[in-house]
Write a structure and sequence with these properties.
CATH topology of the largest domain: Tetracycline Repressor, domain 2
Strand content: under 5%
CATH architecture of the largest domain: Orthogonal Bundle
CATH superfamily of the largest domain: Tetracycline Repressor, domain 2
Helix content: over 70%
CATH class of the largest domain: Mainly Alpha
Radius of gyration: 20 Å
Order of helices and strands: HHHHHHHHH
Distance between the termini: 64 Å
């Protein structure tokens, strides 16, 4: 292993160390109350070291979401590659994939949805914002491809597939955020997956071509 390769590995290891610490602190304190100093203390590093890897707290927060977007894209792409499945079967597989995406890291996906609807995006570096944008577009595009196949086969209503993908994603994120907020008030109750199941069922009925 060359010197440059060792440096790159060490840099990535340190970056992951910071992100693991950040996730713990964000989980305990929430985004607004967390400071870079808190994260540095948890990671056992100096605050100055954190700024070598992340522009600010917002960028560190957003970087945690990339893993979710990467996983989402992988799962939906896998559904599209199942050429033996009918459009309805692909839609069912897509819904199962969304449960998997949530289970992959519930805390981070909730944070990601908050991020998408906040001013935080304006404080990110252009490179990170572009990476989030590219992954988001790829994922929505992959979801839209499933709907397009159903539209082309006359199974689903003749609406723009990207619009259907946007509505599907908005429904998913809205249910997750709403149920997460309800759980704060009533921690002993968790209706997320049953509510998602109802939402998916109603969505599927709504896009079906009545002809």
């Amino acid at each position: 292993m060359g010197i440059q390769e060792r440096k790159e590995r060490e840099k990535e290891r340190r970056r992951q160390q910071i992100m693991v610490a950040a996730k713990r602190v964000f989980s305990e304190k929430g985004f607004n109350k967390t400071t870079m100093e808190d994260i540095a203390k948890e990671a056992e590093l100096s605050p100055g070291t954190l700024y070598l890897y992340f522009k600010n707290k917002e960028e560190l927060y957003a970087s945690l979401s990339l893993r979710i977007l990467q996983y989402l894209h992988i799962r939906v792409t896998h559904v599209n590659k199942e050429t033996t499945l009918s459009p309805d079967q692909k839609l069912s597989a897509l819904m199962e994939a969304m449960y998997d995406v949530y289970d992959f890291d519930p805390l981070i996906i909730i944070n990601m949805f908050h991020l998408q609807s906040s001013e935080t995006l304006k404080n990110l570096s252009e490179s990170l914002l572009e990476e989030i944008k590219e992954l988001s577009q790829k994922s929505i595009g992959a979801i839209a491809k499933i709907f397009k196949e159903g539209i082309d086969n006359g199974i689903y209503v003749a609406q723009h597939p990207v619009a259907l993908a946007d509505i599907f994603w908005s429904m998913f994120s809205g249910v997750v955020l709403w149920e997460a907020s309800k759980k704060i008030i009533s921690p002993d109750k968790d209706y997320l997956k049953s509510t998602l199941a109802t939402a998916f069922e109603l969505f599927e009925r709504g896009i079906r071509n009545p002809d």
